[in-house]
């Protein structure tokens, strides 16, 4: 994980160096590999195809070192292309699996929201969640796994909001009801004691 953070920090500074240097470092390959790497990390897919991710990281890191030293642009290009291919493999293997995991997780989120009747209390977030769920299923049916993942993540976010907004309101209502019952009991006891 430290390597990922180090390489990310180094990547930003190297982007500036590549774009300003007089050498012919492969800027397009660097941008492509970095974009694929960022996407792989964004979706946390490192463990879905660990071997390919490790290969990609090794090639990417070696390319970054050579760029930093301003050496061997052709080798840098080869390394970045190899890294891109491996990152793409991770995405191709990981996104479908991750989409299925999210589909199962969102099923639970949807049940919790329905059980607590979030559709009555926080209608907007509930409807956004359900719309994203339908979009996710549609994306899955066309093998658009990245879109499916993004929609499923939105489903989780909106159902989570709907659930907790509703729960908070129910808790507040229950507390107010308890306080009202305590007041009524107190008044009832006062009335009884005054009648004696």
In short:
The chain is mostly helical. It has 7 helices and no strands. It has helices spanning 2-20, 27-42, 50-69, 73-115, 118-121, 123-141, 145-195.
Molecular structure report:
Helix 1 crosses helix 3, helix 3 packs across helix 4 and helix 4 runs parallel beside helix 7. By secondary structure, the chain is mainly α. About 6% of the residues have low confidence. The protein contains seven helices and no strands.
Question: What is this structure's SSE topology?
Answer:
Blueprint: H1 2-20, H2 27-42, H3 50-69, H4 73-115, H5 118-121, H6 123-141, H7 145-195
Let me know the number of strands.
Answer: 0
Q: Topology as H/E string?
A: HHHHHHH
In whole angstroms, how far apart are the ends? 75 Å
Assembly of the depicted chains:
single chain
> Uncertain runs with pLDDT below 50, 5 residues or more?
12-22
Global geometry? elongated
**Overall residue-averaged pLDDT value:** 86
Helix/strand/pairing category: mainly alpha
Largest sheet: none
Helix run count? 7
* Residues in helix, %: over 70%
Radius of gyration: 27 Å
What percentage of amino acids are in beta strands?
A: under 5%
């Amino acid at each position: 994980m430290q390597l990922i953070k180090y390489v990310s920090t180094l990547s930003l500074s190297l982007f500036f160096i590549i774009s300003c240097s007089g050498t012919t470092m492969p800027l397009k390959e660097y941008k492509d590999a970095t974009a694929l790497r960022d996407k792989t990390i964004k979706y946390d897919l490192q463990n879905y195809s660990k071997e390919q991710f490790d290969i990609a990281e090794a090639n990417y890191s070696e390319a970054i070192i050579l760029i930093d030293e301003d050496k061997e642009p052709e080798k840098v290009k080869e390394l970045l292309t190899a890294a891109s291919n491996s990152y793409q493999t991770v995405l191709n293997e990981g996104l479908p699996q991750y989409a299925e995991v999210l589909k199962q997780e969102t099923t639970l989120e949807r049940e919790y929201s329905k059980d607590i009747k979030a559709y009555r209390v926080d209608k907007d977030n509930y409807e956004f969640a359900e719309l994203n769920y339908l979009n996710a299923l549609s994306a899955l049916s066309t093998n658009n796994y990245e879109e499916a993942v993004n929609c499923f993540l939105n489903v989780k976010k909106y159902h989570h909001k709907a659930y907790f907004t509703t729960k908070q309101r129910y808790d507040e209502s229950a507390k107010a009801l308890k306080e009202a019952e305590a007041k009524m009991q107190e008044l009832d006891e006062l009335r009884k004691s005054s009648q004696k």
